[in-house]
Amino acid sequence: MYNSYLKDIKTYEAGKPIELVVREFGIESQDVVKLASNENPLGCSEKVAQAIASSAQKASLYPDDSMYELKEALSLRFGVTAKEIIIGAGSDQVLEFISHVVLNSASKILRSAVTFAMYDIYAKQFGAQILTTPSYQHIADEFIEKIESANPDIIYICTPNNPTGDATTREEVFKIINAASKDSLVVVDCAYMEYVEEEEYKLVPKDFINCDNVIYLGTFSKAFGLGGMRVGYGIANENIINMLYKVRPPFNISSLSLLAAIEASHDIDFVTKSVALNREEMKRYIDFAKKYEIEYIPSKTNFITLLFDEKHNSSEIATNLMKKGVIIRDLASYGLNAIRITIGTKSQNSKLFEVLSQELQYRESIESKTV
Ligand SMILES: *Cc1c(COP(=O)(O)O)cnc(C)c1O
Known about the structure:
- The protein contains 12 helices and 13 strands.
- By secondary structure, the chain is of the alpha/beta class.
- The strands form 3 sheets. It has a 7-stranded mixed beta sheet, sandwiched between helices. A 4-stranded antiparallel beta sheet has the order 9-10-13-12, with helices on one face. It has a two-stranded parallel sheet with strand order 1-11.
- α2 packs antiparallel against α9 and α3 (about 70-80) runs parallel beside α9 (about 255-265).
- It starts with 17 loop residues before the first helix and ends with a helix.
- Bound molecules: pyridoxal-5'-phosphate.
- Pyridoxal-5'-phosphate (PLP) binds near residues 90, 91, 116, 219 and 227.
C-alpha cells in the first residue's frame, strides 16, 4: 500500500518540547530551559505580540493569498521585486516545493557531510539519490569534484551550516555556483544569515537574482523570533519562483503568521538587539569550552556545537541534562559525538554552564575511580 521510497526515511527528530520534560521529570515548566531548536531566547518583538493579540478575530478569515504586504516588506529589505519571492510555512516548506519541482527517482542531490536533515528527508520522498562531500564544511573543491563526476540535480549550500555553525565564504559559494551545471538548482540556505558579521561570509538574495539556477532561502524562525508562526521565504529569478508556485497550496501560511511576519519586518531593532545579545553570550560559551577543554566548532550562528572525546557520550549528556531541566540537541543521529546548544539569555546560559559542568565533573570522577 505504501510508497516504497518512504521505507528508508527516518522521521525528523525535532528538539524535545518543554511539555515533555514537565511530563516525564515533573519539573515546573518555568524551570525548564530549552536550548535545543535555535529559537530566539528573547521571544518575539513586542510589536508582533501586540499585533497578534489585537488581531485574534482574523482567525476566521483566510489570509491574503498574494501576501502582498509581506512581499513588499521583503522587497524593501532585500532590493528584489515581489515576483522574485515565494513564501512558505517555514523555509522548510520552500524546500519541499523545490524538491517537488526538481526531483524524481532518477535525481541526485549533493550536500556536505553534515548539514540540515530535511534535505535528505525530502530527497528520499522522491526516491532521489543522496551524494555527500567528505567534509562537514562546504569546501568548493569537494563539491566541484562531485558536480563533475555525478551532475547532481540539487546542490545544497547551507551557510551558516546547521548543525555545525560554521559558514562558507562568498568566494567558496560562488566557486560552487560557477561549477554547477545550468540544469541543476543551487539552493543557498541562509536561515542564520542575520547573525553573520564578517563581510566575507555575508550573502544577500540580490547576489543570486541574476543567476538562472540559484535560490536563496531565509526564515523568520530564528533571529526574528517567529519559529512558532512558521514563515520562511525563497528568493530567486522569476522563472524559478513561477515553477515553485505550481506546487504551492493556496493559503499556505495562516492569517496570524502573515501578520506576525509583516510586523516583525518592521521591527529590525529587535533583530539587532537579538544579534547583540547572541554575540555577548557566545563569548561565555567559548570561555566555558576552553575552561573545560572541550573542543568546539567556532560558530557564526545562534548555537554552538561542542565535540566530545571518547571520555564522554553525547547522548548520555543530553539525557542527564534533560533530567535537570535543560534541553539541548544531541547530534548522535548525525554520526557525531557532539551536542548543539542554542545560545540563550544570560540566565539560561548560566544554568546550562552549571548543569553541564556538574555533568562533566561527575563523569571525570567516575573515570578516575575506575582507573
Ligand atoms: C531552522 C532552519 C530552517 C527552516 O526553518 P523554518 O522554521 O522551516 O523556516 C531551514 N534551514 C536551516 C538550516 C535551519 O536551521
